[in-house]
Amino acid sequence: MADLVIPKHVAIILDGNGRWAKARNLPRTMGHKEGCKVVEQTVEDAARLGIEYLTVYGFSTENWKRSEEEVSALMTLFRYYCKRLLKIAVKNNVRVIMIGDRTRFEEDIIEGINRLESETKDNTGLTFVIAVNYGSRDEIRRAVTRMTQDAAEGKLIPEEITEETIASYLDTKGIPDPDLLIRTSGEIRLSNYLLWQVAYTEIYVTDIFWPDFNKDELMKAIEAYNKRDRRFGGVKK
Ligand code: IPE
Ligand code: IPE
Ligand code: MG
User: Fold this and answer.
1) Under a CB-based contact definition with an 8 Å cutoff, are residues 157 and 131 in contact?
2) Mutate to test the pocket of ligand 1, among 12, 13, 17, 132 (most ligand atoms within 8 A of CB)
3) Which atom of ligand 2 is closest in space to residue 62's alpha carbon?
4) Domain ranges across the chain
5) Distance of alpha carbon 192 from alpha carbon 24, whole angstroms
6) Averaged pLDDT in 10-residue chunks for the chain of 237 residues
7) From CA 116, how far away is CA 111, in angstroms rounded?
8) Is residue 196 within 8 Å of 176, Cβ to Cβ?
9) Which of 67, 205, 223, 226 is the most buried (most CB within 10 A)?
10) Secondary structure element (H or E) that encloses residue 202, with its range
């Protein structure tokens, strides 16, 4: 175990809060509440393990389709956890970055996110990237809008656009691509998460519901990652 390679960037699709609650005859919201606690714990675990970047999918651009009741409960939780996360980030030297379109949230939530980012920007430990109102296609759409605006203003030469140029217009600008993507609850799909960024990411799916995820499960994913033969299109030396 001592020689395990710790992936630099771990991305997570936390899934199964609703199923976890259903299995216990609890409302879905209780699953989300438990799920938030597990996010906090995972941030601390990742920081201690020496993971440099942890990106967690908290709310997708498609999740607005859920019932008004569920969306509103998620917003209430998010409000509360912005404050808690600030304490955890300060305690663990964690820098927080939000990806996704925050403009759709209510003013106080936007302020909470801005505050989380500005008050942790000089922290030098784990970078915790939280994806809220995030959808990869929406991220690409927003990037293309800005690219075409810059091209029209002469700041960007279309013939000179490289893959790096495109990456620099995405919300994940400056963040290396994920090495390992973990999805809980057994679903084998990306659900509009980091489509550009996961081109060569190793994918690990576990049947565990997110509220049951813990450090042991994280270690299992890292162990599986260590058995992978990453090639990036080349051949093994
Ligand atoms: C993940 O759990 C949390 C969010 C998407 C906000 P779900 O709410 O998707 O739980 P399931 O998939 O219905 O069990
Ligand atoms: C993905 O989970 C979104 C987040 C984890 C925030 P979903 O539960 O929304 O994904 P689908 O609908 O099962 O694909
Ligand atoms: Mg789900």
Assistant:
1) no
2) 17
3) 9
4) 9-135+178-226
5) 29
6) 89 98 98 98 97 98 98 97 95 97 97 97 98 98 98 98 98 98 98 98 98 98 97 88
7) 9
8) no
9) 205
10) strand 202-205
Question: What residues are labeled active site?
Answer: 15, 63
Q: Which helix (H) or strand (E) holds 10?
A: strand 9-13
Q: Would the CB of 181 count as within 6 Å of ligand 2?
A: no
- With a 6 Å cutoff on the Cβ, whether 131 touches ligand 1 is no
Ligand 1 pocket member 172 (CB < 6 A): no
* Torsion over CA: 210, 170, 180, 122 (sign): negative
d(CA 213, CA 92): 20
Task: Identify the CATH assignment for 9-135+178-226 out of 3.40.50.720, 1.10.10.10, 3.40.1180.10, 3.30.70.260.
Answer: 3.40.1180.10
Residue with tokens 């960007």: 156
Dig out the tokens for 208 from the structure: 């565990």
Distance in angstroms (rounded) separating the CA atoms of residues 166 and 175:
13
Quick one: which of 51, 10, 56, 61 has its CA closest to 36?
56
